[in-house]
Design goal:
The structure is a homodimer.
Chain A: E1 2-6, E2 11-16, E3 22-28, H1 40-48, E4 60-63, E5 77-79, H2 84-88, E6 92-95, E7 101-104, E8 107-111, E9 117-120, H3 123-134, E10 140-143, E11 148-154, E12 157-164, H4 166-176, H5 178-182, H6 192-203, H7 212-215, H8 218-224, H9 233-253, E13 262-264, H10 269-280, E14 285-287, H11 292-303, H12 306-312
Parallel strand pairs in A: 1-4, 4-7, 5-8, 10-13, 13-14
Antiparallel strand pairs in A: 1-2, 2-3, 6-7, 8-9, 10-11, 11-12
Helix pairs in contact in A: 3-11, 4-9, 6-9
Chain lengths: 313, 313
């Protein structure tokens, strides 16, 4: 199997054997925003040439924003609940000029009680892989990022999810706001004490403390009154925003749902901050595995019958 | 009286007679961020030369960010509750080289139950003026802006206030976020229907709909599913953020406090949006008056005895 995790800013390609073990891995910055003229086929051909045979018998499966409107081909969104079987039944296929067939994983959608839709592309594959690798009994998964996802799983299928714009809001406030102008980053290392102060203020349940629009201003006033060093403003704001996401996420899930713990997908520095933040809130959490997306693509390819095909040919 | 409303981006100077009537008004862009080398005295001298007499007997009172750390002189913050009397008792004075004395209005501070301070500079003077002009019985004032203020008044004194970063968050999202990239502004005119849809989604009380970090993403997904035209994304987001501020503000105040209605200070386009948003939420609101800040400065100058002084000299 050739497995492609093709997102907005990066493209990771994996060569995988018949048991799902990774033989080769190539990481590039050829995310869909970085591909000149949208010539995805050229990027695909160059990157995987050495891995394909003449008959193009090795199946290729891709997930992520490559299947979005801005990507190679717009794959549909399928409605929750959905697991590997439902996803495998809705693959789109691109027949390239060189004769390869690239199977695209669909995105997922969920519509809330107000009729407002939510979407994901790529995260569904990570979760299916995580479930496969860890045989996790977790009901709740958190995928930190620019647009963090909280996901609920039941009997191997994604039954609900929600997107939080935490990462983007944090980046905008750091780069462009009055709060960003207060920040001094000595050496860029996070200030754990300030991070936890931010988490604590985000966790205050008293409605008199307002919501996020009000609490954000505390990063300015605490600095103004010398209650927060300029070098700690960034970490404080990070704690405040991640803590607010956790408050919102737990409220979405409802009482007790996260009592069995939460799995944080990925093993980035950001994922570690989320594990710390969840633990600080009293929610037990587990960091995720590396390359879960590969296990997900392998599982979906198997459910779609693509792995049998390649043996038959 | 020479009354100066000297903020971050603008400076408005007023010549006022002994009864508080405005005789002359000059508006400039000489806000504190736009004064070269921080030479505030030069700007002051040039702008008010024709209004001052040789003896410098005309009192000068200034409010706003001119009294901040980045301004001419850092005036203190005084703690709530505070009204005209308390403010008038804490004026700072700058003795200029030309012999004029410029009296600076202090800012106000309020510390919430979590020990987090909040601050204002300039808005306190607008509210004191508004109370003077309208003899308003309102308990609650809203001052829309980059950093909106909600203020509670009792017996002529400001007893509580809170700052919401709504205006700045909205501007950042429009200019720099993935939501901004979705926006098409046909002619820049607001879309009233989309504004109200944003207000409605912000007002949904169901915690399953999450808080602001989650709801922001709806501006993207509604557009993605063709449920919101690209030309309406900006107005929808405006409604969502103003509506979220109203939810937070009402929660801060507690049940029933706003039942007597809310006064919205100012008569800008933004103030009109807030009046519409509050009415849509079922909170009766009144738009404010023009130049309330002048009435506030006149009232404070009177309470400080500066107006009598000028007659005596």
């Amino acid at each position: 199997l050739i497995a492609l995790d093709w997102g907005t800013t990066s493209l990771r390609a994996y060569r995988v054997d018949g048991q799902g073990a990774i033989l080769d891995k190539i990481s590039t910055h050829n995310g869909i925003l970085n591909v000149a003229d949208g010539d995805f086929e050229r990027v695909f051909n160059e990157l995987t040439a050495a891995w394909r045979d003449r008959r193009n018998a090795v199946p290729v499966v891709a997930c992520g924003m490559i299947g979005s409107r801005q990507g190679w081909y717009e794959a549909p969104y399928i409605a929750c609940p959905a697991g590997a079987t439902e996803i495998a039944g809705q693959l789109s296929v691109i027949n390239t000029h060189s004769g390869a067939r690239v199977w695209l994983v669909p995105g997922l959608s969920f519509t809330d009680a107000s009729g407002v839709p939510d979407v994901m592309r790529g995260e569904e594959t990570q979760i299916i892989g995580e479930l496969q690798i860890t045989q996790s009994a977790s009901q709740v998964f958190v995928l930190p990022g620019t647009h963090s996802k909280w996901v609920r799983v039941g009997q191997g299928r994604i039954t609900w999810f929600a997107t939080f714009m935490s990462g983007e809001v944090f980046a905008l406030l750091c780069r462009h706001s009055i709060l960003g102008r207060l920040m001094q980053d000595d050496d860029g290392s996070p200030d754990s004490h300030a991070f936890r102060r931010g988490l604590d203020y985000a966790a205050v349940a008293d409605p008199g403390s307002g919501g996020l629009l009000k609490r954000l201003f505390s990063a300015r006033t605490l600095a103004l009154f010398d209650k927060l060093p300029a070098t700690a403003v960034r970490s404080y704001l990070s704690g405040l925003i991640i803590g607010s996401e956790i408050s919102e996420g737990l409220a979405c899930l409802g009482a007790g749902v996260a009592d069995g713990g939460v799995s944080v997908i990925g093993n980035s520095e950001l994922a570690r901050l989320y594990v710390e933040a969840l633990d600080h809130r009293g929610v037990s959490s587990r960091p995720g595995t590396t390359d879960a997306v590969v296990a997900g693509l392998f599982r979906i390819a198997g459910a779609a019958g693509l792995l049998e095909d390649s043996h038959v040919r």
